[in-house]
């Protein structure tokens, strides 16, 4: 009996060769997403650890893909950064986030809205003017906004980024160091800058209660924040154990699935009212 026919047509069950979990998109796809306004901002609450009050929200971009559904930023932010698209992407995110901020403030909520910036955004001095003008156009002030900065890869020079960040701070935007503990060593140079907030990466928060190594990195980050006069934020608070742990640690703000998942803008108001009731 010739088995080759059988073998040729044999398909392994999906668990033998699971489909790639994440599709990474091409530059043209991402460009089209920006141009066709398929990006939407989700927002995740940041709460005061001491009293539970909602102090702000973080803007997290998603892509409403016409075929693939809701696509997460790790599938397209890197592509945008590598292909000169991150400035256009960031401008879309900022313009939506700032108009949304205005809507929330007018509705009587007192929130500070955070947006994520790539280091590539800070490569040009014009960025300061862009953000400043965008705030004025939306009818908000820099004090309403937090700019979260991550260093996801090594960059050639920090000279321009440091100047841009300094100028943004002088305009009174709040500055936050994101993913602290995971970045490259040059991020340490940024500690010379007037950052207002340090976000301990979720990798050092979730599970730290029962892991000595995580716990010491977490505590070291917190004490650094305190010494430098920055607010500390614990992200990735996923369960009761995380929450109890960060509460006893003296951390200022918390963010994570245990509190709330990122949600569309129109769900934020109701969520806050319920949470604070
Ligand atoms: P990030 O700034 O560190 O944002 C936190 C990420 O952790 C978000 O993933 C959020 O949904 C997720 N998260 C929140 N709470 C929990 C939790 O309790 N457990 C776990 N496991 N995860 C939690 P998301 O939305 O997929 O974003 C991933 C990253 O993409 C962000 O990390 C940020 O670096 C980047 N990103 C998102 N939006 C933008 C943007 O508009 N511009 C730029 N440049 N980067 C963005
Ligand atoms: Ca962030
Ligand atoms: Ca982060
Ligand atoms: Ca991150």
TrEMBL record:
One of the record's GO molecular function terms: cyclic-guanylate-specific phosphodiesterase activity
Keywords on record: Phosphoprotein
Lineage: Bacteria, Pseudomonadati, Pseudomonadota, Gammaproteobacteria, Alteromonadales
Domain of life from the UniProt record: Bacteria
Keyword Transmembrane in annotation: no
Name listed for the protein in its UniProt record: Regulatory protein for cyclic-di-GMP, EAL domain protein
Biological-process GO terms, alphabetical: phosphorelay signal transduction system
Domain EAL: 23-276
Keyword Transmembrane in annotation: no
Residues of the full protein shown: 120 to 396 of 406
